[in-house]
Amino acid sequence: MKKPQNKQLPKCPTGIKGLDEITGGGLPKGRPTLICGSAGSGKTLLSVEFLVRGATEFGEPGVLMAFEETESELTENVTSLGWDLVQLVKEKKLSIDHVYIDPHEILETGEYDLEALFIRLGCAIAEIGAKRVVLDTIETLFMGLSNASVVRAELRRLFCWLKSQGVTAIITGERGENSLTRQGLEEYVSDCVIRLEQRTAEELTTRYLQIVKYRGSSHGSNEYPFLIEEDGVSVLPITSIGLNHQVSNERVSTGIERLNTMLGGQGYYRGSSILITGMAGTGKSTIAAYFAQETCQKGERCLYLATEEAPQQILRNTLSVGINLNQFIEKGLLQFEAVRPTAYGLEMRLVKIHNWVKEFQPRSLIIDPMSNLNLNGNSQRTKAFFMRLIDFLKSEQITVLLTNLTAGGTALEHTDIGVSSLMDTWLEVRTTETNGERNRLLYILKSRGMEHSNQVREFLLTSQGIELIDVYLGQGNFLTGTARIAQKAREELEQINRQQEFEQKKRELESQTEILQAQIAALQVQLKTQYEMLNSMTKQAENHQQRLVENQEVMMKLRQGD
After folding, report:
1. Which is it for the CA torsion 28, 30, 36, 40, positive or negative?
2. What InterPro entries has UniProt attached to this entry (predicted)?
3. pLDDT tens digits, 546-559
4. Which residues of 494-503 are buried (b: 16+ CB within 10 A; e: fewer)?
5. Residue closest to 388 by CA, chosen among 354, 360, 357, 344
6. Would you list the DSSP string of 337-353?
7. Which residue, among 7, 452, 10, has the nearest Cα to 261 in the 3D structure?
8. How far is CA 204 from each of CA 200, 257, 348, 529, rounded to the nearest angstrom?
9. Cα–Cα distance for residue pair 22/24, rounded to 1 Å
10. How far is CA 246 from the centre of its chain?
C-alpha cells in the first residue's frame, strides 16, 4: 500500500537570497504575511524587494501602498540597490500609492472603517493585475484612534479582505513593548509572521530574521543573520547546513613537494579542512600562499580572506620566497577579500563569505589568520561561526585552509577558539632556539583518512621557496640549523678519519702480505732446493748400490765362484 503524499501549502517565492530556503519555498500564496520589527531593522526594504523580485523574476505585478514615505522617496531610497521603480511603474509591473494620514487631523466620531482603503487598493490591484501587495506600515492607519475594539475589528477585516482578493500580501508593523506589534493582534490573524531585529554588541551591529509562525508549513525557527547589500537582502540559511555532505577521494597538492610526501605522497583531500598553527614568524602564511599558487596553477579559483594584512603587502611578501600571485589575480583565478575583524560581526562575515563563494565559485578558500576573528573574546560564538562555515564549505566541496596564531608561552598544540577537532589535517609550525639562533620546525599532528609521516622536518624559507629538510636525529634529541650543519660536518670528518684509518690499515696489511708472500716464496725455493738435493742423493745412492752389485758380480766371475 502506497503511503499517501502530504499536500503541500502553495508558496509564493520571494526571490530573496536565503529566505525561500528558510521558509521552504516562499511566503504563503494568497495569504497575508506580517513583517514586524523596530525602526531600521529592514522591514520596508525587504517588502520592496519582494515586489521587485516578483515583477522582474516571476512575472507577478505588485502594489505598494505606503503610509509614511512618498513615491519619490521610496524610488530614491532603493536606486542604490539597482532597482528602477519608475521603470517598473511605466511597464505596469508595479503600482505605488502613497496614502497620507495625519493623526492630528483625525477626529473620533461615529463608526470607523477601512472601506475607502479597500476600494482604493482594489482599484490598484485590478489596474495592473497585481498578485502581490505590500502595506507599509499598518500602525499609521490607526494612529489617533483610542478605541482598541474598533482597531482590532478593522484589522481582522483588512486581513480577511486581502485573503479574499487572492493576493500574497506583506504587512509591515512596528514592534510593541511586550508584543510583536503595537496592536498585539496582527500576529494572530496573519498566516505567517516574520520578526526582524537589529542588535549592537561589542560596537558591532547585526540584523536578524526569525520566522515566528507559518501556518500549514514547516520552517526554520532559528534567528538568521541577514545583510543589506548592494543588490538587496541576503539571509544566511543556517538550518540548511549540516553533516550530510558528500566526501571526495580526490587529492589536491599542497604546492610543496616534500609536504605532499609527508601526507601520503599526494596532499590534502578535496573538500577537507586544514589548520596550520604556530607562533608569529613561523611561516604559516607562506604555506597558505603555496597552496593558493598550486590551486591557481591548475586553473582553479582560490578565495583568500585576509584579516591582518592588506593584499598588496601579501603579494609583496610572497615575492621574497619565489611566489608571484599577481599573475593569478590578473587571470581572475585569485581573489582577495581583506576586511578587519572589527568591520562587522561574525554573522555578517558568514553572510559575506556565503555571497563571495556564490559569486566567485572558488575550489579552495584561505582565511589568514582565523585567530583574529576571536577579538571580541567570545570563543563559543567564534567556534559556532567556524563550525557553520566549515560545514557550508564541505557541502560545496571547497577545500579550506585556516592559519591560527598561537601566542607565546601557551600550549602549542592548542587553539583559543577550540576548532582543532573540526579539522581534517592539522600542521604545526614552531621554532626552536639553539646555539643562539631560532630555527623553524614542521610536523603533522593529524591527517584523517590517510597515511602520513610522524617525522619532524626543518622548515627553511629561502628566495627559491620552502625547503623541508630532515633534522639530525641523535640519541634522544634532534638538531637543527647550524647545530645540524656542525654535527653533519663532524660526522663527515669522522667518516674521513675512519676512511683514512681504514686505508692505512689496508696498506699495512698489503705490505705485510707482500713480505709474507716473499718469505713464502723464499721458503718454497729453499724447499725445492732441498727436494732437488734429496733427489740427487737418492739417485747417487741408487747408482752406488748398482755399481756395488755390479762389482760383486765381476769379482765373483774373476774368482770363478758358484
Report:
1. positive
2. AAA+_ATPase, Circadian_clock_KaiC-rel, KaiC, KaiC-like_dom, KaiC_C, KaiC_dom, KaiC_N, P-loop_NTPase
3. 888 888 888 887 77
4. eeeeeeeeee
5. 354
6. EE--GGGS-HHHHHHHH
7. 452
8. 5, 43, 10, 115
9. 6
10. 16
Alpha-carbon distances of 478 from 356, 435, 475, rounded to whole Å: 45, 13, 8
Q: Residue 309: count other Cβ atoms within 10 Å of its Cβ.
A: 16
DSSP notation for 374-403: GTTS-HHHHHHHHHHHHHHHHHTT-EEEEE
Q: Which of 258, 327, 265 is nearest to 297 (CA)?
A: 327
Question: Among 492-496, 518-522, 556-560, which stretch is predicted with the lowest mean pLDDT?
Answer: 556-560
Q: What is the CA 556 to chain-centroid distance, rounded? A: 132
Q: Are 286 and 322 in contact (CB under 8 A)?
A: no
Q: What is the DSSP string of 194-257?
A: EEEEEEEETTEEEEEEEEEEETTS----SEEEEEEETTEEEE--GGG--S-------EE--S-H
User: How far is Cα 338 from Cα 341, in angstroms, rounded to an integer?
Assistant: 10
229-251: buried (b, 16+ CB within 10 Å) or exposed (e) per residue? eeebbbbbbbeebeeeeeeeeeb
CA distances from 157 to 33, 160, 209 (A): 15, 5, 28
Please state the separation of Cα 39 from the chain's center in Å: 36
C-beta of residue 96 within 8 angstroms of C-beta of residue 74: yes
> Are the C-beta atoms of residues 194 and 209 closer than 8 Å to each other?
yes
How many C-alpha atoms does 423 have within 13 Å on its Cβ side?
Answer: 25
174 φψ region: left (φ > 0), alpha (ψ -120 to 50), beta (else): beta
The dihedral region occupied by 407, where left means phi > 0, alpha psi between -120 and 50, and beta the remainder, is beta
> 17: buried, middle or exposed (CB in 10 Å: 19+, 13-18, 0-12)?
buried
What secondary structure does DSSP assign to 16-49, as a single string? Answer: -BTHHHHHTSSEETTSEEEEEE-TTSSHHHHHHH
User: Residue 6's pLDDT band (boundaries 50, 70, 90)?
Assistant: low
- Per residue in 311-368, pLDDT (tens digit) is 999 999 999 999 999 999 999 999 999 988 877 777 778 878 888 998 999 999 999 9
Quote the pLDDT of residue 147.
63
Q: pTM score > 0.90 for this model? A: no
d(CA 555, CA 488): 98
Residue with cell 755390479: 550
Question: By C-alpha distance, which of 205, 222, 169, 237 is closest to 42?
Answer: 205
Residue for cell digits 643562539?
Answer: 436
Instruction: Tell the burial category of 466 from Cβ atoms under 10 Å away from its Cβ (0-12, 13-18, 19+).
Output: buried
